[in-house]
C-alpha cells in the first residue's frame, strides 16, 4: 500500500492515518469539519490536499449512519481501488450500501476493537490498535485485492485480524461493547443526585464500573441507533437478571428463614455466574486469564514514583503482568497494585520492603 484516503478525522480515523503515515504510506485526509482535518494534518497524520488520482485504499471513518453514503461517494468518484469502513456496526451499513447500488466486491466492512472515552484527532495515537482485534467481514464476493489491502492495513496498524460474519459481529459487540456502555452509564447516573458524602466514598470499584460512562453521548447515539435490536436483546436478559436479583434481595429482608435462604441462594447464583463469565474474558496476549497475585504498595503523588517502583521490581527479577492505581480520596497518596505470577509475589514484596516501600497486606 502506497497511498490511502482517510475520510473522517476523529479518534479512529486520525489514529489509522497516523499509523499509516508513520510507516511510509502517503495519506490524504478529508472531513466535513475542516478544523479537524487541519489538526490531524498538524499531528503528522497526512495532508489535507486531495489526491491527484485514485489511491490504493479509502478508509471511511464516519458514524455508522453515514457509512453507506460515504462509500457510494468514494465509488462514484473512483477515488480508490478498494474501500473499507471502520465503523462499530457492520450488517446494517452493508445492506444500506447495497441498496444504494454500491459495488460490494470492492467494499469491505471492518471494525478495530479499540477506542477511548475521549474523541477527536487530539485523542488519536498511532499505537491505538497495537495488539487489538480488528474484525473483517468479507463475503464470498469480496475482491481478493481489497481483502489483501485490508489485511495490509491491519498489519501496518499492528492489530490482529479476526474474520467474522457481519451480523454475528453486531450481536457480539452488542454484548461486549454496546451494552457495557449503557450499563456503565446507568450506574454512573445514580451518582448524579447522590449525596456528596456518598460520592466522597467512591473507590476503585465504582471508578472501574463507570470509566466508560465518560464517553461522548452523541457518538454513542450514532452507534446504538445502528444496532438497537441486538443491544435491546442483551439488555432484556440483563433486566430479567436484575428483577430476579431484586426479588432475592427483598427476600433477605424477610423474617422468614426459608425466604432468606432462598434470597441468599439467588444472590449466590448471580455472583457465581458472574465469576464464570469473567473467567472467560481473555487475559494477557489473548490467552485465558491467569490467576495473578497482587502486591499493593503505598506510593506518594510525586514525579518519578512509578518509575522507581517499576525499576525496583525489575532489579528483583520480577515481571509485572498488570498494574492498577488506587487513589486515596483527599490525600496526596495512593496504592499501586502490581499483578504478578503467584510464585513471584513473595519475592517482589520482600524486595520492595527491603528498598523501603510500604506493602499493604491483601
UniProtKB/TrEMBL annotation:
It is an enzyme of class 1 (oxidoreductase). Coiled coil: none annotated. The keyword Oxidoreductase applies. It catalyses: prephenate + NAD(+) = 3-(4-hydroxyphenyl)pyruvate + CO2 + NADH. SUPFAM superfamilies: 6-phosphogluconate dehydrogenase C-terminal domain-like, ACT-like, NAD(P)-binding Rossmann-fold domains. InterPro entries: 6-PGluconate_DH-like_C_sf (IPR008927), ACT-like_dom_sf (IPR045865), ACT_dom (IPR002912), NAD(P)-bd_dom_sf (IPR036291), PDH_C (IPR046825), PDH_N (IPR046826), Preph/Arog_dehydrog (IPR050812), Prephen_DH (IPR003099). This is Prephenate dehydrogenase.
Amino acid at each position: 500500500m502506497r497511498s490511502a484516503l482517510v475520510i473522517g478525522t476523529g479518534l479512529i480515523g486520525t489514529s489509522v492515518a497516523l499509523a499509516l503515515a508513520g510507516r511510509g504510506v502517503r495519506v490524504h485526509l478529508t472531513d466535513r469539519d475542516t478544523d479537524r482535518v487541519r489538526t490531524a494534518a498538524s499531528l503528522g497524520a497526512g495532508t489535507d490536499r486531495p489526491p491527484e488520482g485514485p489511491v490504493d485504499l479509502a478508509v471511511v471513518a464516519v458514524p455508522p449512519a453515514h457509512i453507506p453514503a460515504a462509500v457510494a461517494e468514494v465509488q462514484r468518484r473512483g477515488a480508490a481501488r478498494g474501500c473499507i469502513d471502520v465503523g462499530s456496526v457492520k450488517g446494517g451499513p452493508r445492506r444500506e450500501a447495497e441498496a444504494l447500488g454500491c459495488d460490494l466486491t470492492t467494499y469491505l466492512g471492518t471494525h478495530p476493537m479499540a477506542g477511548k472515552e475521549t474523541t477527536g484527532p487530539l485523542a488519536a495515537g498511532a499505537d491505538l490498535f497495537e495488539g487489538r482485534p480488528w474484525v473483517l467481514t468479507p463475503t464470498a464476493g469480496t475482491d481478493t485485492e481489497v481483502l489483501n489491502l485490508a489485511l495490509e492495513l491491519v498489519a501496518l496498524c499492528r492489530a490482529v485480524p479476526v474474520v467474522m460474519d457481519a451480523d454475528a459481529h453486531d450481536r457480539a459487540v452488542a454484548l461486549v461493547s454496546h451494552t457495557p456502555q449503557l450499563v456503565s452509564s446507568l450506574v454512573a447516573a445514580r451518582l448524579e443526585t447522590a449525596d456528596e458524602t456518598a460520592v466522597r466514598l467512591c473507590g476503585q470499584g465504582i471508578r472501574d464500573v463507570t470509566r466508560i460512562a465518560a464517553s461522548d453521548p452523541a457518538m454513542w447515539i450514532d452507534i446504538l441507533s445502528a444496532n438497537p435490536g441486538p443491544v435491546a436483546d442483551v439488555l432484556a436478559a440483563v433486566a430479567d437478571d436484575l428483577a430476579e436479583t431484586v426479588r432475592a434481595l427483598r427476600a433477605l429482608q424477610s423474617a422468614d428463614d426459608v425466604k432468606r435462604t432462598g434470597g441468599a441462594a439467588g444472590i449466590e447464583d448471580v455472583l457465581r455466574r458472574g465469576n464464570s463469565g469473567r473467567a472467560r474474558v481473555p487475559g494477557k496476549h489473548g490467552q485465558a486469564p491467569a490467576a495473578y497475585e497482587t502486591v499493593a504498595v503505598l506510593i506518594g503523588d510525586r514525579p518519578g514514583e512509578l518509575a522507581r517502583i517499576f525499576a525496583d521490581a525489575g532489579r528483583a527479577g520480577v515481571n509485572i503482568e498488570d498494574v492498577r492505581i488506587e487513589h486515596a480520596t483527599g490525600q496526596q497518596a495512593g496504592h499501586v497494585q502490581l499483578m504478578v505470577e503467584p510464585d513471584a509475589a513473595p519475592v517482589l514484596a520482600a524486595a520492595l520492603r527491603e528498598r523501603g516501600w510500604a506493602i499493604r497486606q491483601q
